[in-house]
Amino acid sequence: MTTKIEAIIREEKLNDVKQALHELGIVGMNVFEVRGHGRQGGIKLAGRTGVYQVDLLPKLQLNIVLSDHNVDKTIETICRAARTGETGDGLIFVYPIQEVIRIR
Questions:
Q1: Can you tell me the distance from the alpha carbon of 82 to that of 91, in angstroms, rounded to the nearest whole number?
Q2: Contact predicate 30/4, CB 8 Å
Q3: CA torsion sign, 94 to 95 to 100 to 103?
Q4: Rounded distance, CA 62 to CA 19, Å?
Q5: Which of 6, 43, 44, 74 is the most buried (most CB within 10 A)?
Q6: Stated pTM of the model
Q7: Full pLDDT tens readout for the chain, 104 residues
Q8: Beta bridge pairs of residue 5
Q9: DSSP reduced 3-state for 44
């Protein structure tokens, strides 16, 4: 069986996560630029015109499809490499994949 891991991480942590996954032997992934916010609702920034709310923060979404026996190690690796300890470090979603068809 195969599994899809969808990880939403900070933009600045992409290289750390890619390097850690490469060391684990996970080299295939897709990366998308996304915007959103979680429970924190965004951030407040102070500018010349006053304080304003930025509620759609830029993040990156990594999609990785892999064998079930690699899932736990991959999740642990992403968590370790993407963690800053601050609010907004990201989320990981895990989905079962019914079938993978390779187009060649």
A1: 10
A2: no
A3: negative
A4: 13
A5: 74
A6: 0.85
A7: 899 999 999 999 999 999 999 999 998 999 999 998 777 776 667 777 777 677 788 999 999 999 999 999 999 999 999 999 988 889 999 999 999 899 98
A8: 64, 94
A9: strand
Token couple for 6: 């969808």
Q: Is 100 within 8 Å of 65 (Cβ atoms)?
A: yes
Closest among 8, 6, 29 to 89, alpha carbons compared: 8
Using a 10 angstrom Cβ sphere, with 0-12 exposed, 13-18 middle and 19 or more buried, the burial of residue 51 is exposed
Q: How far apart are CA 2 and CA 48, in angstroms?
A: 51
pLDDT score recorded for residue 36:
84
13: DSSP letter: G
Please name the amino acid found at residue 77. T
What pLDDT was estimated at residue 55? Answer: 77
CA-closest candidate to residue 14, choices 78, 99, 75, 69: 78
